[in-house]
Task: structure prediction
Amino acid sequence: MASKMLINTPSDCVDECLRGLVTFNPGLQILQGHRVVVRSDIDKVKADGKVTLISGGGSGHEPAHAGYVGPGMLSAAVAGAVFTSPAPASILAAIQAVTSPGGTLLIVKNYTGDRLNFGLASEQAKGLGMQVDMVVVAEDCALTSADKTAGRRGLCGTVLVHKIAGALAEEGRSLQEIASVCRQAVSAMGTIGLSLSACSLPGRGPSFSLAPDEMELGLGIHGEAGVCRLKVQSARDAVRLMLEHMTNGQSASHLTIGKGDHVALMVNNLGGTSVLEMNIVADEAVQWLEREAGAEVTRAFAGSFMTSLQMAGVSLTVLRLDGTTQRCLDAATQASAWVRPFLADGQTGCMSPCIMKCDERLISPEVCVKGAALTQDVAAKLSAAISAACRVLIAQQDALDDLDRVAGDADCGSTHARGATAILSLLEKQVELVSRPQSFLLAVAASLSREMGGSSGALYSLFFPAAAGELSGSVDSPAWVKALSQGVSAIMRYGGAEPGDRTMLDALQPMCSALQLKIDLRAAAKAAVEGSQQTKSMRAHAGRASYVAADQLTAVDPGAHAVAIWMTALAESLQPA
Result:
């Protein structure tokens, strides 16, 4: 049963949220055609040559990140769909809109999709001659993963990094210096969360369940599994448990606090916690840090900084301060969501959103028709098969989301549905491209980069251009097999996962291997299905699923299952029984 929310439609809630934000904050504007919020005075910032700052990620964590756009903090924030990383095209649009002679710093939470999409946009921007650096915030002290593409999560400490970087940028510091100070701050910071209830995505029910007498220690901001579940305790005992776990020194992911250390404390409402509870937790946290750890809480902040929709719970962030970081936390800012906002004298504005136009030439380049051509008959069959595969993916949206719920995201189906819808739109508008597979795959990659989002969107956006490169001179069966193999290699190279890590590769790799032995689409589809089914017994070594205990991962990996779905649909259409 869907949770109660005051929204219009789930599909429009992110856009309407951003529009409402800029309506009541005349210092902000929306970048036309993108879910990007930009400072209204960005032209002056660029003219002054100061470093500009961009952050972002999935929506549902409001006020992060758009609430921290303004003088003294971010230059722009990029929003994805709820709990889904934004598309590289929007990130690149944001970079292009705010880049200055001083360069641009991207501040990114340590989630696979965010790293991939912001990293891809960063590389594209560098290729266009822009000066860009990226700081990844990974300060989670709840648990750590030794796997290649997971690691410590980025949590509420990211907001403190926004503030530190924003103050340094206002001072006119260099891109290199700001990035260095931010990385040092991340290494001196820890965050841990505690939940009393699950978060609920718009139009859906709770993403997991907790018994009435249970709470969960160390969960992620998307509802990812934490350290343990235990009986509900008093605020004092809960805070002690959180901070003792954060500082116990048993792992490199934990924070070291020495007697006499000056620290900043951020008490963050995860979305559904009352002010009464927040004040109690804040008081207990200060007392524990000073009484038990011997630290001096020099700066303290309490409020809703990085939420998880309707989740009842809190997170605690502790930062060891030095002279620079303390000065930066004290510096003035006009960002609307900072706990002590400063307003410019005489600032006025209208009560309707300000829209900033962006240069789409860099973001949506025209696709050149090139590569070997298919006959008209073959192109028509291929177009029909792709349409059929897309329609099946859209029909399986809820089933894929349900499979993905165990890992905390519950968005695999909606992400693939967005991608499938984008491909169907491309087929409708540029059907002639299918006759040139190289051009068509490049157009698909560009479309998915704009529309799909999430880790899957980034990986498919890497897969298709790599595959397209093999179809320039020939489109016979061996060329297609080589193209698919190149696409798989690109996913492995950039995503960091390998077959056996419980990802989409466990369906893609067997499919390619089957085709290399024999050009038989039904046999390849069968191999993809079998590879997908084998993920039931695999331990996750990549992505958010690697945070989940192995005994909870008993269903097929949703990404691998999605591959099996579209490959089966293609085979049935192109090679009827």
User: Anything to note?
Assistant: The radius of gyration is 24 Å.
